[in-house]
Amino acid sequence: MWVLRTLLASLVILVAGVAALAVATDGFRAFTSETARRIDVREHPRALPSTPLQTADGQTISFAELRGRWVLVDFVYTRCRTYCSIQGTEFAQMQQRLAAPIAADRVTLLSISFDPTRDNPAQLAAYQRRSGDRGAGWIAARPTSASGLRALMGVFGVTAISDGLGGYVHNSAIAVVDPQGRLIAIIDWDKPAEAERYVLRGEAP
Amino acid sequence: MTVSSRWQSWRGPALWCVLVLPPVRGALESSIMLHMLVQIPLLAVAGWWLSPLLPKHLTDTLPAWNRSGISGIVLVSVVALFWMLPRSMDAALEVPWVEVAKFASVPLLMGLPLAISWPSAGFVVRGVYLVEVVATAFRMGWLYLISPQRLCSNYLLGDQQGLGKAMLAIGAAICLLLAWKLMWGHIDADGVRRR
Amino acid sequence: MASLTMYPDDEHLTGSARFAFNLYMITAVLLVVVFMLVGLTMRMSQTGWVGVPPKFFYQLLSMHGAGMVGTMVLATTAVMWFFLRKYVRLHLWAFVTNYVMFMAGALCIIFAVFIGGYAALWTFLYPLPTHGMGMWSPHASALFMLGYLLIGVGELIFYLDAAAGIIKVHGNLGRALGLQWLFGGDINPDHPKTVVASTSMIIANSLGILAGAVVLVMSLINIFFPQVAIDALFAKTLIYWFGHMYINAAIYMGVIAIYELLSRYTGKPYPLSRVFLWGWAATTVLVIIVFPHHLLMDYAEPHWFLTLGQFASWGSGFPVVVVTVYGALTNLWRSNIRWTMPPRLMILALFGWVAGGFGAILDGTIRINLVMHNTQWVPGHFHFYLLLGVLAMALSLMYHEVGRRTNGPPNSGSDRVGFPVYVIGGLIFVFAFLAGGHASVPRRMAEHLQAWTFTDKLGSIGAMLVVLAMLYFAIRITAGLLRSSRSGGADVGAADAAG
Predict the structure, then answer these.
(1) What is the ipTM, given to two decimal places?
(2) Integer angstrom CA distances of residue C451 from A16, B93, C429, C433
(3) Where residue C436 sits, what CATH number does that domain have?
């Protein structure tokens, strides 16, 4: 009797535990928060807030104004000498490869700084210049308020932590925003070709 | 009630209260190593120390469902598995209710059930559990060391690899300790008879 | 002191204990026959006598390897249980749990191989199981590994129960090994050799199982999350730690049968000596660290590690072998032994163990290993000590038990025919492998060149004889174990030994 009861109790705990783990890992697919955000974005596209953004040439824009075209977004801070500087070059190269759809107003590239106190329009412009900006279709911008920054980082799922050397470590990626202004996919930062296929042919990776 | 028995009743809640203090919480969550190897084990200890506060009718009825402490140890293992997910670590930092769940579940569903179950677990149940603990420490350590990416968005890669090495060291230490005790120690489980 | 009574009362099996023992031993002999047939099929396909598609050959090879290693450990676990339970309290539930988990694991492995098409061999070397290239799915590999996990945990439960029993009597494992008598002191002559050998294997094989538990789960994680790439060389190191310990445990658990039974048949006491304790203490350490000798061709391993493998394999074979063979021979010397099946099998086992071990020591030498390790020398040596050594140890206990249930030690006419058929067939079979190794025939190959088929044919003929003899043994033992016990059998046996 004791044995049966213990067996029953253990079985119930085990089944409940496995069920809880299944829920907590999106059916054993996502064990890290990074995978989880990608799955969630893919399965539940997110509407974007119309946070005002100040661009490198001092203008103010928002996602609402970018509706009607695909937007590829990354988050950077311009002092960064590692990932963000490579990302900048990468965006400049995409600018060249996607020149035709950019000219047709079907695609825009957007780099958002998560360090807006330091990244003023001049710094943003310098970042683009260093990266080899081709002139059209790549916007670098910063949120104009702390609450706007929080809202954007929250909806894109961006986490930036201090690297202990005065800079940041962050989950770099390329975010895909569709013409309806929804965040629909997050792609590895080093796979621009996947992002290009997405905006050119609507192919999900 | 003597001073020491009163202390035994209240040291669990006291430890929990210390851990929940914002500066302590902030410090212990500042690195993944402190988070996983100090904060969570201490929360479990706080739960273990809660056992004297358990109502008597529970301590009387639970053993019927917990022969040799097996159900309790299954519960502890499942909850431990949950808090070993890198995703849970991130969520605890980012989502307030997950943090609350951690502060509740680690003492109540890990520490306390272990305190209730361990004394009734026999040599075999304890042995299987400890071997699994050692194996898990080695597996986790190995995983953290080879993972090319950060598993937690909130912690640095170097910190993660440090945790990997610490896990391997902890696994090896438990293993050596157990081996030493079994080979040369005095084990009085079930009353050792000498011939 | 192990008594010289042929069938002592404290070994008498009743009720569920008898049922469990029969279950172990009958399962073991039947599985051995089945897996021998699998082996024979492979040998015959190499000669070209039967056509086996190469893909199926590797499935058979995986089944034969995993199956035989598991079955040897199953049988010798029953040997350890049978004798150890006289000295310490063992719980039947632990013994039965091991059987149930073994069978569950065996089912997983059989499904993985024959339904899933798994053919990455018993060593599941990373990353082969994940790269079936369409021949098997990663899920088949996962099922195979799950099978191993179940078998490993079952064995661990049995060991832990045995450790608990030993510790209750002897205080700790060190005292059970007799470490307190290594440098002096009066050795307790009643300290059982069975306890020494069992303790040694509990320590060594539990560590092996721990290594297995780590590498199996890491391999499983890799199957489901291929981006988690594990270090192939380190994985191989752990796999061999696990695999080496597991099959060696079969030898050292099996030898308990010789310690317990030989003196009953020779009628001479077989006392515990300090040398014996030293032999086992040394072997306990060496057998844990000897596994690098499987990795001598992995030049990327650190040199100290490979050197350790070479020296430990020179050392680990010797102590227990020398102590046991010397002890057994002095026990045999001028004894009035009556040659029946159990002592025949025991002497065969000692020969098989020593001769096979000699081949192992040669292969464990780096210079020789570089030339011989990928040849049939290797299956030659391990079949030598498994077929003619370990299996014979387990069979000797089975025959001994059959004797208890009939008219004393079995020695029927068909036994007297079956035994030489087994020995001669076995020798032809293993020497065919060794000769193949001498001729540089590679091992593990489905297709053989024409020039290699002579030894293949010889091996097949030897294997046929072995299968015939083993089939007879299996039937004889199954029938014998299922017979109801004769009352008063113990006295008959004792009288027999005295005569």
Answers:
(1) 0.91
(2) 62, 69, 18, 14
(3) 1.20.210.10
